[in-house]
Amino acid sequence: MALSYDDVIAKYEPVLGLEVHVELNTKSKMFCGCSTIFGGEPNTQTCPVCLALPGALPTVNEKAIESTIKIGLALNCSIAPFSRFARKNYFYPDMPKNFQISQYDEPICVNGYVDVEIETDEGPKSFRIEIERVHMEEDTGKSLHVGGATGRIHGAEYSLLDYNRAGIPLVEIVTKIVPGTGKYAPEVAKAYVAELRDVLRSLGVSDVKMEQGSLRCDANVSLRLIGAQTLGTRSETKNVNSLRSVERAIRGEMIRHAELLNKGERVIQETRHFQEDTGLTRSGRSKEQAEDYRYFPEPDLVPVAPDAAWIETLRAGLPERPSIHRKRLQEAWSVPDKEMAAMINADVLNIVEATVNLGADPTKARSWWLGEISRIANEKNVAITELAITAADVAEIVALVTAGELTDKLARQVVEGVIAGEGKPAEVIAQRGIKVVNDDGALMAAIEKVCAEQPETAEKIRNGHLPAAGALIGAVMKETKGQADAARVRELLLGHLGHV
Amino acid sequence: MIHLSAAQMATKLADGETTSVALTHAHLERINAVDTDVHAFLFVDKDGALKQAAEVDAKRAAGEKLAPLAGVPLALKDVMTQKGIPTTAGSKILEGWRPPYDSTVVAKLKANDIVILGKTNMDEFAMGSSTENSAYGPTHNPWDLTRIPGGSGGGSSAALAAFEAPLAIGTDTGGSIRQPAAVTGTVGVKPTYGAVSRYGLIAFSSSLDQAGPCARTVLDAALLHEAIAGHDPKDSTSINAPVPQVVAAAKSGDVKGMKIGVVKELNGDGYQSGVRTRFEESLELLAAAGAEIVEVSAPNFEYALAAYYLIAPSECSSNLARFDAMRYGLRIGDVDGASAESVMNLTREIGFGREVKRRIILGTYALSSGYYDAYYGSAQKVRTLITQDFNRAFEKCDVMVSPTCPTTAFKIGEKSNDPIAMYLNDIATIPVNMAGIGGMSLPAGLAPEDGLPVGFQIMSPAMQDQRMYLVGAALEAALLSKWGAPLLSQVPALVGK
Predict the structure, then answer these.
(1) d(CA B347, CA B327)
(2) Which of the residues A28, A30, A49, A53 would you substitute to probe the B interface, choosing the one with the greatest number of B C-beta atoms within 10 Å?
């Protein structure tokens, strides 16, 4: 019988370690001028440098250095006055040089921290995640293994190589070990990755799209008996590509480790691959024998020695911290805690803010994104940002409703149409022939017709029983095929029945 | 015409006494006649050279202002990429590869309208001191075809000594420009590290590799030096400062009041007697020209060779990892069902020669965890100590000098099975690379006992390359007036076919 999570945390303390890889959104690659645009024809974004042709040499992308320093500053790191690139040597067909230019013992940013807040049984609680280092490196190419059952290199008939990704700038953010989170380990990890993502987004240095791999998390988990000092053996779950998966992967690994330990077996030090469908991990590469990457300083690149004044300029230009920003928005919009948490959870805060910035009322913007649009995203099982509806679309729809040109019900149809790819709101309205019946004459005709059909109800209303109006308004709406503004119908109906 | 210096050829071109096409033809004919014996070239780009020459002639006819060496032919060491031209670095693993891009050096040569005749032979990936490690067979020393022309750039130096080209490009990681110059009676300069871009130079040891000019006179070397040097944004280690005025220095040759430091440790035991004789004689000539000769000491030079053979193999083990049969060059064993790993293994097994494998293995070992500090780490410390030795010595002198090599050219095959003996040939040239400073070798005469050329080495502080040209020009002038004719007038005629 599977162990329950409660059983695990009654006996063991989890210790976390998180490594996050972030693809920077620089226009060109880390060490050459090739484009970084996602999704180009294979091998069209390459040159002698990123193909590692004989004789080619790397040069550092200054913008990538700037972005990394900004990340370090935002994560409260110290910026090394002198840091170096190093070669990490290993063979793989999709790695052109058969070494990766990375940083080893002299990273550019060290010793930072991030505070994250999560809901606990005792209310909101803050946890500090200490950052060991932030360093720069380059991505590898991509292999596509064709013909095998697993899509892995073993058993494949042949492999295709695409070097477009080779040399894309990556930043790796590594935490120190994170003890003391107890049963909240999965939530803390999730909150940490979410906070990182928000910080990176606010800095504008990355697209931070987990589903596209521009932000990838490797989660290290180990367990030790509560009260024990020495660390247990860890596993490293790779490429967990959503916030929810971070939480699930860690919870799953904690249970798997505890089951092994309870049976007196040992945890194997290895990489694990998270399976989105089952929420379980499968075994990857053993790390029992530490791989020897033969690191040494990259002789083709001069050390990175950022000017102190430049660092201070970058520090001064840092945007507001996302947590502070959130508090400010909450106040400005007068949103209750629970609603705020719902927005953060559903990951719609940014898009709501964008919608508000385009003139929409905060409450209305929130209710669209958190309500109807979130519902459709869930139904389609995609991230809200992947839907074909933008903040500008929603702002426009809200404006039309406010102007009385759309009813809430019609607006929902417009939203649906935009998401279905029928075009911008105006196009959807035109194509679907959606139109509020504003013509009082037409409405009055419908009202008179309905009153004639239901004289008893009309009489009740005339006699002051206003709740009965609902039934007649409904009938009028039906009569006008839903294209009437219900508020106007109510006004006219009551007037018609003597309530001016 | 082929026996003139590059500067004289340039004058004749400028004066309309000859054309680049004629000059290029003359050299192609010479190559055709003697290169079967010398084997300086791996590839002769006859059509490309003549086309380039015709273009320069047309520009000149149109009255365009041309660079000083425009129209003069040159031999390019096969370690430099040239777009569309086979480039092997002397290795089988690159057989058939035609680079899709020009190295910065080649781009500059083309911009200077220097005519590229072809690619010269070299030890595989520039690893060697004899050119015997070329996968395409050895080059022969024009002074004695049974002897080595030095290495790794033996093809370039032999081409100069055999009058197959008046200019050549070399690269120098531990002496690969200077030692071949010494044993062939030619001039070779390793500029300060970073003076000439490494972009397109197929790397052996990135922190030591440096391209430089090879020629038959100090002035020719200086002219070529100025043509290829300068900052290159494509090379992170390239020096961003004006190129020293080496042509002016080579023209002046004024050493009055200069202090010339003789390195105590690079002389004496282990140096052939004729090498010492010619070295002492050169010192006297420099003193007579007004220089002050002082003795300087560099106590850590004795560790230079050992440290070099840790740093260079370490870097090469990583630099050569890219030769994996995936993207270019040789591919062996690519049959149905073969894994990428087995193709990589087979290709590297067959494509790399013995010396290259030896160094890859050495370097892999030296960088391994647990050994890194003892080997690579210690070697880097020695490197710092050598730099400090130079810095201290340069407080007492303007340039330092030594024999370029302990011996004259040895016989082909003589040291093939004794790598240590082979490595020792570079004992005097390696410290210069370790410190990243400038070094020149120029002919000091023939050793009395074997009648073979002896090289005189001049070392100048980083970014002071003009100093070695001053001293080199002074010595060259003094020797010329002593001999009455350039040393190479004594080289066998090599009638060939």
Answers:
(1) 12
(2) A53
